[in-house]
Model the fold of this input.
Amino acid sequence: GVSLSHDFRLTHYFRRLKVVLEIIFEGLLEQMSDDEDHLEVKKTVVHYGSLEEKAREIIARRDADEAEDGEGDSIEIPDAVQEGIDAGNINIAEAEHFDLDESENQARLELLKEFEKKKRARLLQVSTDDSEVKAQLRKLDQPICIFGEGPADRRERLKQLLAELGEDVIKKKLRADIVHQKPKTESEKNTWYHEGPQSLKVARYWIAEYSLRRASKRIKDQKIHSLLPDTQKRAKIQEIQRKAGNTTILCSQIGDTRPISACQFSPNNKMLVTGSWSGLCKLWSVPDCELVRTLRGHSHNIGDIIFHPQATLSLDENALCMASCDHTGVVKLWNMKSEEPIANIEGHDQRVSRLAWHPSGRFLGTTCFDNSWRFWDLEAQLEILHQEGHTLGVYDIAFHPDGSLAMTGGLDSYGRVWDLRTGRCIMFMEGHLKAILGVDFSPNGFHVVSGSEDNTAKIWCLRQRRSLYTIPAHNNLVSKVKFQPIDGHYIVSASYDGTAKVWGHPDWSPLATLAGHEGKVMSCDMSSDSKYIVTSSFDRTFKLWAPE
Done:
């Protein structure tokens, strides 16, 4: 290699040489400037793009010089340019243009439009929540579901629509709807009531007197119970829950050729009634589960069948003892003697899902898929109340032990508590994510339970008007919920996951799982003495459960 001192000497030498050459070059330039003929230095011109414009310029200048000088010297076209023109590599158009075919131009525009739409679709932010996607499609007046379409396909369809129509089209549509919406009048803003029949007024007075007597007795019993020592009360609760936790299967019976959708114990706990999708209702003995009688009258799926509160106790067997409903809206009334219905209740245009007797036995509540529930006075043989309030079908109904309140659960995921003495909705139960399929009151009078399609059961307090606890009850929808009839120290929930479960109160801990059905558990009930639990299933069987 070369040493650093040698590199330094070379650098110094070249610097001196550069200075000498610059002096010589300046001298040559001064000498050339004194001469008459100056030296012209030609620079290479690099052309970018097409040479058409440059060639056109040269030809134009040549033609202009020929016009001025006649036969004089003219500007010559460079040989390279002329060769390019002759070879066809440089095309000089004479103010001509080539029109594309209309179809080709249209196809080109459509292709560019499609590319632009795909680009916008990639940049769009669309929710992954399927319910929100459906809501946005509904706002765009598009079908929310197409045959064979899944959530991912539906989301992609929404993205394509928004890319085509514009991302803010939903906001514009909402603004347009608000503009065209008529302003509400003062009368529309206020809660309104319409005049009811005289029979409703009479019934409200009667219910007020009846419920006050029962409420007075209930509160008196609760005061006596509150005087007991806490240790005694806790020991009683623990004993009741221990027995409930030891519940095992007692009897299993094939009840019909179709799924059994409803079941209930008689008030004296010696009989059991079931209803199935075949349209047949059957009476069974308890606890041996032997068939007593088959009730024939319905031609469609049974929704519910229930006993009168005083049936098998003080009512005559020829009197009205049972009520049933089916999916066509037919409600039939039965006695304990005949296999045929003794009367029909008409007036429902859509499916009737559940029934409930008022504690007095005088009134019957029915829930309908026309977004309403109805209150029937069976003594007067009249529909005295047609109550709306839900935005979707009403699925289940229950009455307060005192008879003063009614609670309804709807497919709109909301529950409502109604005061039968005034007609007002006194509590709005908001919290479930999906349809409410079961509701029940506690014997204490201020706790209620609701079971939902969101797989949970919620405990509500009427005093505080709020949800107290959410039980993550099952792996599928909760089809029915029931409080223990005597003290309400536990509840039973039935589910489409094939099980029924027992939950303790007040900590709502799991006490027992009643597993044995091969299909969905569609209904459940508890005997009034809390000795038995019955479940009915999609597997065409009903099972009787009892503590060991």
Remarks:
- The chain has a mean pLDDT of 84.
- The two ends are 103 Å apart (CA to CA).
- Residues 167 and 222 are 61 Å apart (CA to CA).
- The chain is about 30% helix and 30% strand.
